[in-house]
Amino acid sequence: MTIDDSQIREVLENGLGSLQVPGGIPDSLLRRAKRRRIATSLVSGALATTLFAGAVYGASALTNNERADIPPAQSPRICAPEEVDIFTDISDPVGTGAGHYGVLLEVRITPQNMSCEPTLYIELDDSPVLPPDHEGPDADEFRRADENPCLRTGRAHGDFLYSDQHTIDVGTGCDPDDPSPHSTQVSLRFDGKTHEQIDDTEAKTASELPPCEDENSKSYGQEPPGKWLKDVLLELGAPGGYPLTEEDVRDTGTALWIDIPEYDNDPTIYATMVTPDIDPNVPRSTSEKEIGRRQSYTLYFDETDYKMETYRAVNDRWQLALLGYPGAGNDEVLWPDGTVAWLKQAVDIAEESPPQCEGPIT
Amino acid sequence: MEAHIRSAERGWTQLLKSKADARLADLYAVHAASAARLAFFLTGDREEAQDIAQEAFVRVGGRLMTLRDPDNAAGYLYRTITNLSRGHGRWLQRNKAALHHPILSQSHEAPQDLGTQHEMWQTLMKLPLRQRTALFLRYYLDLSEADSARALDCSVEAMKSLTHRAIEALRKHMKGASS
């Protein structure tokens, strides 16, 4: 049977032509888009286009038995947070491998008055941390533990990428699409120490050369990848022939993250990174197909749905990896042509250029 | 000095925000209908399509001023819709509903044509999402191969391949159905 173009057009016209769309752009859409811009622009500035590979995965909701210190206010009431406190429980961080860092995040909001059941929303690095009633795979990422509308206390056990800075955007409001008038941006630093208001936050500077390590006990699961790998990457450039600058390669302490311009418009591919070898304690799915050392392989984490394409160094201590995050709705991350070859090339160059270090051997 | 820099950044941010709103409104005016239709083509669910299209505009709007290729915001929009449609996890179920498209059943075409169109629609809805998107760009929006490729952020050859494979699959299925 032959099918010509006009038949396809006709079927599409018949099938799709009747779908009606409202005329002007809804205000709610503009507000949501604006809100989406806020966190990133405040932190990095409009001049910076740093890609941030942040994600919250596999969070498990925790019950918090705290009750409200403040009783429900009487009408007339409005939704407005009087205080927003964000606590991070980093006393016992759980390294989950691949540059991730498990922390407990507790958000407590004390609205002044309430006129309605408020919607608490939290955005982490421009990605919403969804409330429990959200239908979807991320439903449990954040759960309100206290049902008192005047006090929202929740805890999220997030698997955060270990980074120098995250942005939490917290707000309450009666209109879930428009909580921004009552939102607060807070910058967290999961460096094991503090969380600070954004204006007081200073960007963490790139690390210097790592201390020299005993070759026999060298473990990049313990030490930062170091400047030498950064130099390798700067020399090699990004996949697709794009040059890399110092600013494109960020050392977060456990991994180097590379912004790849080629992927800038692809919401599913967050970054390329150099990491220590994957934490063996991280559960991996049965779909992992490891061909062998020094071979490229793909793995998915059961709990997080990351897709990673890695290429290990011969010493089995570090690797280059591509990280794909299907959080943008893509469950089929496809690497652009040449990317895996780039990984291998980078590893080869790195192995030919031994790491430089400073200071006495530790 | 630091205060000056921050002040300048805030001012710049505000400026970009207002420009971003205007650009988003323009983008919406031109592409809202096709965005919703693409989402519907990919999901088979009208309400879901509207939601996905809105979410895609929000996402594009959030990055409008920092897109690597600002002139290709529509392409980014279509790719986002494709990704959102794919990732929702229930698209198979939605597709089942779409196989019985009410528009087609209400068509005034002759019964024989209706049957063929219905069969074609069913087959189209079974195609991989990127192939469907490619067909949508080429045959519904009537974009050229080059423009379609740019929208999908792939090479012209890849676009040709996507389209070719989609039509081949369609042809093969229709041939099997008619025999």
Structural class of chain A: alpha+beta
**Number of helical segments with 4 or more residues of chain A:** 4
Tell me which oligomeric state these chains represent.
heterodimer
Count all strands of chain B and give the number. 0
Report on the biggest sheet of chain A: 6 strands, antiparallel
First-last Cα distance of chain A = 74 Å
- How would you sum up the global shape of chain A? globular
The main pleated sheet of chain B reads as: none
Order of helices and strands of chain B: HHHHHHHHH
The radius of gyration over CA of chain B amounts to 20 Å
Which series of helices and strands of chain A comes N to C? HHEEEEEEEEEEHEEEEEEH
Written account of the structure:
Chain A has 362 residues and is an alpha+beta fold. In chain A, 15% of the residues lie in helices and 27% in strands. In chain A, strands 11-12-13-16-15-14 form a six-stranded antiparallel β-sheet. With 179 residues, chain B is an all-alpha fold. The N and C termini of chain B lie far apart (78 Å). Mean pLDDT of chain B is 72; it is low at 1-16 and 89-112. Chains A and B meet through helix 1 and helix 2 of A and helix 1, helix 2, helix 3, helix 6 and helix 7 of B.
Strand-helix topology:
The complex is a heterodimer of chains A (362) and B (179).
Chain A: H1 5-16, H2 27-44, E1 60-61, E2 81-97, E3 100-111, E4 119-124, E5 127-129, E6 143-144, E7 152-161, E8 166-173, E9 184-188, E10 195-197, H3 227-236, E11 249-251, E12 256-258, E13 269-276, E14 297-300, E15 307-312, E16 318-324, H4 339-352
Antiparallel strand pairs in A: 1-7, 2-3, 3-7, 4-5, 4-8, 6-7, 8-9, 9-10, 11-12, 12-13, 13-16, 14-15, 15-16
Helix pairs in contact in A: 3-4
Chain B: H1 2-43, H2 46-63, H3 73-87, H4 91-98, H5 102-105, H6 111-126, H7 129-140, H8 145-152, H9 156-178
Helix pairs in contact in B: 1-2, 1-3, 2-3, 3-8, 6-9, 7-8, 7-9, 8-9
